[in-house]
Amino acid sequence: xxxxxxxxxxxxxxxxxxxxxxxxxxxxxxxxxxxxxxxxxxxxxxxxxxxxxxxxxxxxxxxxxxxxxxxxxxxxxxxxxxxxxxxxxxxxxxxxxxxxxxxxxxxxxxxxxxxxxxxxxxxxxxxxxxxxxxxxxxxxxxxxxxxxxxxxxxxxxxxxxxxxxxxxxxxxxxxxxxxxxxxxxxxxxxxxxxxxxxxxxxxxxxxxxxxxxxxxxxxxxxxxxxxxxxxxxxxxxxxxxxxxxxxxxxxxxxxxxxxxxxxxxxxxxxxxxxxxxxxxxxxxxxxxxxxxxxxxxxxxxxxxxxxxxxxxxxxxxxxxxxxxxxxxxxxxxxxxxxxxxxxxxxxxxxxxxxxxxxx
Length: 359
Ligand code: SF4
What we know:
It is a single chain. The protein is α/β, with parallel strands linked by helices. It contains 14 helices and 15 strands. The chain has helices at about 5, 40-50, 65, 70-75, 90-95, 115-125, 140-145, 150-165, 185-195, 210-225, 240-255, 280-290, 310-315, 345-359; strands at about 15, 20, 25-30, 55-60, 80-85, 100-105, 130-135, 175-180, 200-205, 235, 265-270, 300-305, 320-325, 330-335, 335-340. The strands form 3 sheets. The protein has an 8-stranded parallel beta barrel, surrounded by 6 helices. Helix 7 runs antiparallel to helix 8, helix 10 (about 210-225) packs parallel to helix 11 and helix 12 (about 280-290) runs parallel beside helix 14 (about 345-359). The two termini are about 25 Å apart. The structure holds iron/sulfur cluster (SF4). Iron/sulfur cluster binds next to loops.
């Protein structure tokens, strides 16, 4: 899929050195979970996230003391940072003064208009965008009363209400996120908002759960919207090491097939009575070898198929493929049969071919 052919037309918002929205790549985000006052721990985690492919990192800034370490963090990492702030506009202003690249705050919960204007003014002056983060667990009381529960319409109304509070002061460098733990509600709310404005959207299913179920819920929520061309940045929220979120996010982009961002894609059959090789071990060994050789980001499709019945079709469609026979496999490259290779050399042969493709 050429994502930009179906992509929702949004305005562009700069976040540090990166651009979000328009025809820019879909950016992957995560959030640190270390002590917000421990600069060294935050820096270590940010570096780990960046090393595995995170584009933007959000940090919790619960008080002014935590804001004061932004300068140190910024001096030691090279990735745009978002300050996650609730309720206190002074923390937002101080974070902006200290060089944060984006602020996540809901103007509806920081007080009167003078406070909202003060945040808008400092962000405008420093070209810092604001992400409005609507969450099903923290809707405005009046909106909750009107709808009775955090329905998609309620979530969308809250987002647009918060947008209006910034627009009132001529602030338009806005990114919107609407998250819910129910993927269906999150999908529907984002669709409503996508039709009503041109601000970039940050997608995520919140409180999605542990790695396996959280990744599945996120794939449903984020993936559905991306397939419709909606979404400019994503975060997979997992009850796990944040590094795992990046791996899941990349897999979602890969499954959606967004050009240039899919990384290495493995196509492998489910095995059946016709399977001629130990496909389950083979695919597991191949995945491990891909990681060990640092090849996960190579934009290549590799098919590993179990027999010569349906296998050759998929193997031909991939950039590189194998279709298993008894103790051997046929190697395909760009649709052409190259040669037969022994079963015990399949993993190494595929890795060598990927390295050649990469170079
Ligand atoms: Fe079975 Fe062959 Fe299909 Fe694999 S490719 S599931 S072995 S028929």
